Amino acid sequence: MTEPRLKLINPAIEKMSRTEMLSLQERRLIAQVRRAYERIPYYRKRLPKEASTLSSFAQFRDIIPFQSKADLLVAQTDLMTEQVANPGSQVVSMHMTSGTTGLGQEVHPLTKLDVEAMGSTWVYQAHWAGLNLGDSIVHTFPVGMQTGGLSSFSMAARMASRFFQTGIYATEKKIDYLLAYKPNALVISPAYLTRLQAVFEEKNISPKQALPHLKAIFIAGENYTKDWAERSIDFWGANISEWYGLMQGGLNLCFSCEGGILPNGKRGHLHIMEHRVLVEILHPGTNDPVEPGEEGELVATTLFREAFPILRFRTGDRVRLMANTCSCGRHLMSIEAGTVARYDDMMKIRGQNLWPDAVDKIVFFAGDIEEYKALVYVDKEGRETVDLAIEFKSNTGFSDSEKALRVKEISSEINQKVNVRMDIREVPYLTLPRFEFKTRRWTDERRAGRDFIRYQSH
């Protein structure tokens, strides 16, 4: 397979050596921390006085404490007086986190410069994926105060694109817009891309013919299997590119390069925008840096944020540090595409640790299941029970006996590979909820005091 031609946006950054990048990061880190201490009341109360004279990475790691979501939520009570750098930081926008952790939504102030930085970072991914200035983009995420939707407006302005916000419309209407405007790019979650594919198949519409100008699909919000990636790339006939971002970080932190999410059949690199953010990947519990190829928690520090920078924010996200340099040749630190997960997604069921993505790999492997929903509860006999409802795609052509056989196969494989027995049943098509942004397939209804693993910062 021929390697895609590189589309450099900022050669000075993209061709930078590791030594040069680390030097740049250290200079920007020192300036950001000193400024935060001097100009933001929240940090003057939280940080040691040595922060005002910070001089190195080593000192940063020694004296700057970690931040958690709980810390930021407490600070929200005095948002504009405590969290905004003064003087000279005029807030023009307020963005909110999605609140999917169940701990509540944070509100973050942004200046005009912060908003501009957010949009300019998007441009790296857009160009790497093959878009040009003026290309049309259909955005399917619902737009409210969450950054996932709001940041796209800044990106669209920088790309001078024809931009279609379709998040509020039903799936049928979205498809009408896709067929009418024949966009160059689609911004969507993996789960909703699967839903669109199912409807296209029901209508016997080939996107390769109906959407001839589609060059790039941008995904985020959940992990996915390699099999899903292969099927999706083949079905849509377009480069699929992933991004990972944080509202707390004020920007999208990393992106796929020209090779997309599955170059040469292997999971791709998500290149970290290291000139804008410092990322630490740490072992939970010890806080030691992981080795290349290992998994750990992503901890983020903004290097370019005016209103309210984030210092050592513990995301709770499990990522894998890539062990090899990407074939694109960029020396940017990178994490593995398609495998970002949350530590608080892990559950302990009957003494076994269970990650939902392990079940995803089994259920979606063959491509005949469109959606599933899992309920964890304690039955009348006090036994921890998992009820798994699965929904077959409408076009499988399976008879009732064939569906029953597939349910039995899935049940057996889950039992063998996950080591947790589940009660699996088929439900009628379109019974289960669909997701347009972050997928929540698992519900844990065990009584208070249940053995549910949540990652704790140290």
Short descriptors:
458 residues, alpha/beta, GMP Synthetase, Chain A, domain 3, 4-stranded antiparallel beta sheet, 20 strands, globular, disordered C terminus
Describe, in plain words, how this protein is organized in 3D.
The chain has helices spanning 11-14, 18-39, 41-46, 57-63, 69-75, 79-82, 112-128, 147-159, 171-181, 190-202, 207-210, 226-236, 356-363, 400-417; strands spanning 91-96, 107-111, 136-139, 162-165, 185-188, 216-219, 239-246, 251-256, 269-272, 277-282, 295-302, 313-320, 334-336, 341-342, 347-349, 352-354, 369-378, 384-392, 423-426, 442-444. It is an alpha/beta fold and 458 residues long. The chain folds into two domains: 11-16 and 93-342, 3-Layer(aba) Sandwich (Rossmann fold); 346-444, ANL, C-terminal domain (GMP Synthetase, Chain A, domain 3, 2-Layer Sandwich). Strands 4-3-5-6-7-8-9-13 form an eight-stranded mixed β-sheet, sandwiched between helices. α14 links the parallel β18 (384-392) and β19. α13 packs antiparallel against α14 (400-417). The relative contact order is 0.11.
Q: Look at the structure and give the CATH class of the largest domain.
A: Alpha Beta
Q: Characterize the largest beta sheet: strand count, sense, and whether it forms a barrel.
A: 8 strands, mixed
The helix/strand class is alpha/beta
* CATH topology value of the largest domain: Rossmann fold
Count of the separate structural domains: 2
The poorly predicted ranges are 447-458
Q: Helicity level, as a percent range?
A: 25-40%
The count of DSSP E runs of length 2 or more, i.e. the number of strands, is 20
CATH architecture of the largest domain: 3-Layer(aba) Sandwich
Mean pLDDT: 88
User: In what range is the share of β-strand residues?
Assistant: 15-25%
Give the number of helices: 14
Principal-axis shape equals globular
Cα distance spanning the termini:
46 Å
| Rg value | 23 Å
Walk across the major sheet and give the strand order.
4-3-5-6-7-8-9-13
CATH superfamily of the largest domain: ANL, N-terminal domain
